Amino acid sequence: MNFSPILIVSGEPNSVFLELFFKVLSQDKIKSPIILISSKKLLYFQMKKLKFKKKIRLLQISKLKSYKLNNKTINLIDIEYNPNKAFEKISKKSNIFIKNSFEIAFKIIKKYNFYKFINGPISKKNFLQNKFLGITEYISKKFSTKNTCMLIYNKKLSVCPITTHLPIKLVSKKINKKIILDKISLVNNFYEKKFNFKPKIAVLGLNPHCESIHKYNEDEKIIKPSIKYLKKKYDISGPYPADTIFLKNNRKNFNVILGMYHDQVLAPLKTLFEYDAINITLGLPFDRVSPDHGPNEKMLGKNISNPLSLLNAIKFLEKYWWKLKKA
Predict the structure, then answer these.
(1) Are 218 and 203 in contact (CB under 8 A)?
(2) For residues 285 and 188, which has the higher predicted lDDT (pLDDT)?
(3) N or C: less crowded end of the chain, CB within 10 Å?
(4) What's the rounded Cα separation, in Å, for the pair 303 and 266?
């Protein structure tokens, strides 16, 4: 394992993320020092609301490499943000805070060669404002990386949507041989570098039962020929109908299920594993992992959210960081 520091951006301030962060720190299972990029004022408000006590140690970016860090305190890079209370309604008010948090994180990653990065959830509607499909695309753009993919990872079964947060009516227009090849290549490389084996990948069809009443059938014209071509190099098969692939006797035959759109694979995976999954962005020059959930505004301040996904994200980086870096 590698216990070098993990850089964390708290993300949307009006979310359950800091509650989860406090719970993870309380478990005392984390060996890697955590550097949190967030607001000191926000932390004090939410610590008081959630009845969590821990000292805060303010860090200077210019001295990051000289600090001797542990998790006995919250190691904080303070970003200006002025909430009036612990939790407010999610709005564009926090956009500058979130943007500055990410910009500082990216500066640290580039300047000090940090390779372990986690971000809390953001509101796509308010922060991204339709300029990016999701945070995966936002970060990819900041590092001029064109070929990335979202892998929702669980040790028993992972899924990868070849299109992410795209309206359903636009999905078919984005499906082509190149995007399928690119995603399969990234997923296969990830498993080979990290687990030392070639993953068994199931590819789903786009249409119900992989059939269509239209003259142009994407399953026949694009997906089947792509699978046939890729079989020469990768352990893949399909296309499979999405309504039966997640049955126990079917899913047990695969390590990864590649879907054509977001909810086709994320909805069944979350039904199966709930919080026991993490979001890994493949293809970046560093290792970006995030908990597999959103801000969860309805749960704010209740102190009953499950920290398992964040804990898994941290433990994953501790265990597999060096292999991820090589990939």
Answers:
(1) no
(2) 188
(3) N
(4) 26
Say if residue 28 is in the same domain as residue 100: yes
Q: Residue 326: pLDDT band by 50, 70, 90 thresholds?
A: very low
pLDDT tens digits, 245-283: 999 999 999 999 999 999 999 999 999 999 899 999 999
Task: Of 280, 70, 310, give the one whose Cα is nearest residue 189.
Answer: 280
Phi and psi at residue 224, to the nearest 5°: -60, -50
Q: What is residue 322's predicted lDDT score, i.e. its pLDDT?
A: 53
CA distances from 277 to 1, 23, 190, 217, 292 (A): 20, 18, 16, 33, 6
Helix (H, G, I), strand (E, B) or coil at 268: helix
Count how many domains the chain has: 2
CA nearest neighbour of 149 among 100, 196, 185: 185
The reply to whether 19 and 138 lie within a common domain is: yes
Omega of the bond leading into 239 within 30 degrees of 0 (cis): yes
| Beta-carbon-side half-sphere exposure of residue 293 (alpha carbons within 13 Å) | 26
* 4 and 134 both lie in a single domain: yes
- C-alpha pair distances (Å), 7 with each of 33, 180, 255, 278: 9, 31, 29, 16
For 7, the 3-state DSSP assignment is strand
